[in-house]
Write a structure and sequence with these properties.
Layout: H1 2-5, H2 7-14, E1 44-45, E2 56-62, H3 70-86, E3 90-96, H4 99-111, E4 118-122, H5 124-128, H6 138-144, H7 153-157, E5 160-161, E6 165-166, E7 172-174, E8 176-181, H8 182-188, E9 201-202, E10 208-209, H9 213-222, E11 225-226, E12 242-248, H10 254-261, H11 278-292, H12 300-303, E13 319-325, E14 339-342, E15 346-347, E16 350-351, E17 356-362, H13 369-379, H14 384-391, E18 394-395, H15 401-411, H16 419-424, H17 440-456, H18 462-478
Parallel strand pairs: 2-3, 2-4, 12-13
Antiparallel strand pairs: 1-3, 4-17, 5-6, 7-17, 7-18, 8-13, 8-14, 9-10, 11-12, 15-16
Length: about 475
């Protein structure tokens, strides 16, 4: 799942390199080709309908998220073969496109009137590049009496989007949590952060306070230490020689930083007007002060240094806490084996735990919605465990989660409290922080330029920069008209 779940990081480096794509080869003309990872932007079909006029062809587009690695393709091919053997009424066709060319390839197919039926697995960011083009599944769920109770309500509601309906079903989910280093808390004589939503934080003297971003800030300052052993609350603290930081917004962009304070959007309800939610502006001030005034968050130069794992600071073992998603377990090679998980803090009494999720979506233009839905429910049903294994995702289906966490226990034997991840599902952000923006890719680039600015430049008039961001986003949004 690494490619998909690293959306925030990967898009910074690959979006500018997307190339033009070719339309898929028409079905029924030659013998099937073996599924493999094609040249950049070149779709490859793994099977084709021939003379069987009884079977409805459903095309499955792979590559907009994860799924195009050779080992994954081999497993996907076996699943397609098994599905076709069990469903004589449907001929499922794989179409694999290299990730770097997938957006252009899918856009070309849609524009040419030759779209696939199903796309996935894909996360919110990848799907929002094709905003408004996904099928509302509500009537199909009702028609087939598909059981939504097998998933947590928060995971289902995540796909209920205003004006669009139910545009997906839960498959692979990645709740948020606060990763923390037990040893650093122990050394500082501090109690660990709460593991239950609604619990207060208890200081060493027994005082209890709300677990919010003010408390997180205070903890982070006490856990930020200079080379002389002074923490950031000490008047003698040396911010030029920090040996350990208290907090890192791991793999977050400004939308994620804001979304942890409160679910929101940079686009007003009219779908075209730029806005900056008050909570997001507050979150950016909190971040900026943490970097430049309170010094418990590494600046961009420190974050990108080899000493701090070249953009992965918590993994360096020199950061006490990091707020991010469950997929981050993929990247904890050097963080030691005494980290654990705590719940996301609250903001003005409300907790929002940003949510990442991948699924298979059906395009509105499919000519065969019933058959496409049958395929999707197979992929997230009988085929889900095998697919989740190759995509490295947490099962959305509640009955499959225990086995998933047992596998993680084998990798991380320090008795991580995985229940924190499960409990975070109920606090998923809706609207999601990665949701629709007009002219999505250019807007995304501008947002990340803003993040680099505030984490690399001391002495900014931050309110002025926020106003400039809003104005720039409006110009970018207007280009979409």
């Amino acid at each position: 799942m690494k490619r998909t779940v690293f959306t925030l990081v990967i898009l910074l480096t690959v979006l500018t390199s997307l190339v033009s794509a070719c339309s898929p080869k028409p079905a029924g003309t030659t013998e099937p080709t073996q599924a493999s990872v094609p040249e950049q932007g070149q779709p490859t079909q793994s099977s084709e309908i021939t003379s069987d006029n009884q079977a409805v062809e459903i095309r499955w587009f792979i590559g907009l998220g994860t799924g195009d690695d050779p080992a994954q393709v081999e497993s996907e091919k076996k699943i397609v073969e098994q599905f076709n053997a069990e469903h004589p009424n449907i001929k499922l066709v794989m179409e694999v496109v290299n990730y770097n060319g997938a957006r252009d390839a899918l856009a070309t197919e849609i524009a040419s009137g030759n779209p696939p039926d199903i796309v996935g697995p894909v996360g919110v960011s990848g799907a929002e590049a094709f905003h408004g083009q996904w099928l509302d599944l509500t009537s199909l769920v009702e028609k087939t009496k598909y059981d939504l109770d097998q998933f947590d309500k928060g995971a289902v509601d995540f796909y209920r989007v205003g004006g669009e309906g139910l545009i997906g079903l839960p498959f692979a989910i990645f709740p948020s949590m606060l990763y923390y280093q037990r040893d650093m808390f122990d050394e500082a004589g501090l109690n660990y952060p709460p593991h239950k939503y609604g619990e207060k934080y208890k200081w060493a003297d027994g005082t209890e306070v709300e677990w919010n971003y003010d408390t997180l800030r205070e903890l982070a300052m006490k856990l930020t230490v200079d080379k002389n052993g002074k923490d950031a609350t000490n008047p003698s603290f040396d911010p030029q020689n920090i040996s350990q930081y208290g907090y890192e917004p791991q793999y977050q962009d400004p939308r994620a930083v804001g979304g942890y304070f409160k679910a929101g959007s940079l686009v007003a309800d009219d779908g075209k007007t730029a806005q900056i939610p008050d909570a997001w502006a507050d979150s950016w001030h909190w971040l900026y002060d943490g970097v430049w005034n309170d010094h418990y968050i590494p600046n961009d130069a420190v974050r990108q240094s080899s000493e701090y794992n070249s953009g992965n600071p918590f993994n360096s073992g020199k950061v006490a806490m990091a707020l991010t998603h469950l997929w981050y377990t993929c990247c904890l090679v050097d963080a030691g084996q005494n980290w654990d998980m705590a719940v996301v803090p609250s903001y003005i009494g409300t907790t929002t735990a940003n949510f990442n999720a991948d699924t298979f979506r059906i395009l509105k233009d499919t000519k065969h919605p019933d058959e496409a839905f049958e395929v999707v429910t197979y992929l997230i049903g009988p085929a889900s465990l095998e697919l989740l294994d190759i995509y490295e995702g947490m099962p959305a289906r509640k009955t499959d989660q225990e086995a998933f966490f047992k596998t993680l226990d084998e990798q991380f034997p320090q008795e991580v409290d995985w229940q924190v991840a499960v409990d975070g599902i109920a606090y998923a952000d809706n609207p999601n922080f990665e949701a629709y923006m007009p002219n999505y890719n250019e807007a995304f680039d501008r947002i990340n330029t803003f993040f680099t600015l505030i984490t690399s430049t001391e002495g900014l008039d931050l309110d002025k920069e926020i106003d400039t961001l809003k104005s720039d986003l409006q110009v970018i949004f207007d280009k979409a008209d």
